[in-house]
Amino acid sequence: EPINDPLAGIDLPAGCQKLDGRSALGFVRTRATPRADLDRMINQREFMSALLHRAASPAVLLNPLRWYPTAHAATGALTVNTDDHIWDLARLAWALRGDVTTTTVPIGEFTGSDSGSVVVWNREAAQQLFGALASDSPVPQDVLDAADPGP
């Protein structure tokens, strides 16, 4: 769908886009869509997926003039342990190139309040999600399905 958001500084036509930094920032910040923050969340995941895909591409990894600035920027954007090395970030990037699952807290309902629209978590599915994360266990598929806000 096209997105026109003067507050975010974007006027994007429908379809796949190749964005510069300013437009990408507007894309991940915009709330000018039918589902506002829920669409914003999806846009942010799409952006991160495209960014990681590009950063892990041979065009970046095989060219020191590209991978060094990319790795340097990543170290400035991430908090790392004092014992970590640049190769730890490279291994992380390599691990993220495969089949990565992203999710959010499952949504139970939409309601209203004096402050405006409110999204309420699905309490049971949220407890299962946080329990799986706390125990470093796989998140059950039904919890992932419940967390997908869909279009």
Describe the fold and architecture:
The chain has 151 residues and is an alpha+beta fold. It contains 7 helices and 4 strands. The chain has helices at 21-29, 37-55, 58-61, 64-77, 86-95, 123-134, 141-147; strands spanning 3-5, 10-12, 107-113, 116-121. It has a two-stranded antiparallel sheet. Helix 1 packs antiparallel against helix 2. The mean pLDDT is 86.
Q: Roughly how many Å apart are the termini?
A: 11 Å
Shape: globular
Most strands sheet: 2 strands, antiparallel
Q: State the secondary-structure class.
A: alpha+beta
The SSE string, one letter per element, is: EEHHHHHEEHH
Give Rg in angstroms: 18 Å
Widest β-sheet, arrangement of strands:
1-2
Q: What's the overall average pLDDT, rounded?
A: 86
Topology, number of strands:
4
Low-confidence stretches are: none
Helicity level, as a percent range?
A: 40-55%
Supply the number of helical segments. Answer: 7
Write a concise synopsis of the structure shown.
The protein is an alpha+beta fold and 151 residues long.
List the helices and strands and how they pair.
Layout: E1 3-5, E2 10-12, H1 21-29, H2 37-55, H3 58-61, H4 64-77, H5 86-95, E3 107-113, E4 116-121, H6 123-134, H7 141-147
Antiparallel strand pairs: 1-2, 3-4
Descriptive terms for the model:
151 residues, alpha+beta, two-stranded antiparallel ribbon, two-stranded antiparallel sheet, globular
